[in-house]
Design brief:
The chain is α+β, with helices and mostly antiparallel strands. 25% of the residues lie in helices and 39% in strands. The protein has 3 helices and 8 strands. The strands form 2 sheets. Strands 1, 2, 3, 4, 7 and 8 form a 6-stranded antiparallel β-sheet that branches. It has a two-stranded antiparallel sheet with strand order 5-6.
Length: 125
């Protein structure tokens, strides 16, 4: 099985660069559940727990893109992506630096946000 270089951002911890197995089970283990893939930048995907707001995960960081802000709950995995092949791949050194710099600009949660309350708030707006 192929291995890829990724960035993992666990709740309440600094992001870290590591090498993982490139398979669905490993991604699910890292995010602790079913995965949802969110494009972050050209060639970089963020993999989150699809039900992170509803299953009791703790808030990790605020994510703003195209004028929309969301609060990401649970541990997160960042990978490179090959759009032509539709596969995850290792992050390059430049992509790793981009992710680390980007995470430093993300607003940190207060720690008392609740996923289901966050969903209701944004649905009601």
């Amino acid at each position: 099985m192929e291995k890829i270089k990724v960035v993992i951002k666990k709740v309440g911890r600094n992001p870290r660069v590591t090498i993982i197995e490139d398979d669905l089970k490993t991604s699910q283990r890292i995010v602790k559940g079913r995965i949802e893939i969110v494009p972050v930048a050209n060639g970089i995907d963020m993999i989150v727990n699809e039900e992170g707001k509803m299953n009791g995960n703790k808030p990790n960081f605020y994510f703003t893109q195209n004028g929309y802000t969301d609060l990401i709950f649970g541990d997160v995995l960042f990978t490179g992506v090959d759009y032509e092949e539709g596969t995850q791949e290792s992050l390059t050194d430049g992509q790793i630096q981009y992710v680390l710099d980007w995470l430093n600009t993300c607003r940190k949660p207060n720690g008392d946000e609740q996923g289901e309350e966050f969903i209701r708030y944004y649905i009601d707006i």
